[in-house]
Design a protein that fits this description.
mainly alpha, Glutathione S-transferase Yfyf (Class Pi), Chain A, domain 2, 2 domains, 7 helices, elongated
Amino acid sequence: MQADKLVADEIQKTISRLYERINDRFPGAGLARVCQRLHKVSLETDETVRWIAHPNHWLRAGVAGLIILVTGLLGTSLLQLKLDTERITLPDFIQMTEAAVSELVLIGAGIITLITYENRRKRQRVIEATNRLRSIAHVVDAHQLTKDPDRLSKIHTLTPHSPSENIDAFGLGRYLDYCSEMLALIGKLGFLFVQDFHDPVATSAVNDLENLTTGLSRKIWQKIIILRNQPIEAEN
């Protein structure tokens, strides 16, 4: 991994190894399938990052040509415009000026829209990809919701509808740690989108994803700390 940049290939390898670790310790667990899905998304993330970094030359050429055409037509119209300055009154001049300014504003807005079209396409792609990562983060959180360390304490009391899971303290700690690792990797994947794409809206979406994964991971580590500091019921 480069000293000052995240590399997609390294993140993909880390996710792949995490899947193997989860599957080795919890064969067939739903969390392993989520990690496998995350690895597939990471490959698509790599494609998205390359798509964002690659300039669309055909689109830029088309936009440039359209701007030149509009500018040329406007210039030609101005050159062919003939005004009878002797008959123009002040109200007529003000009305003509307002109309000209309105047209220039509309043309300017259209040109800005064309110029920013490529950037807006990339921004939308980042937002859609970030939303997919956000969805996976919530799925990871859903998998750890019922992993309550209090169930391993000496004072726990089960009800008829309590989750029925046979897992010891060490296994629960590893499960929670895997969830935290996966959330951290989701945040790293999101950052890849804006590592070289400096768009405020896209960066804000990625920052929201980072805040989400950090908050969910913080809840998981609260469970891990409780697990490490509480008296555990002795096994027979």
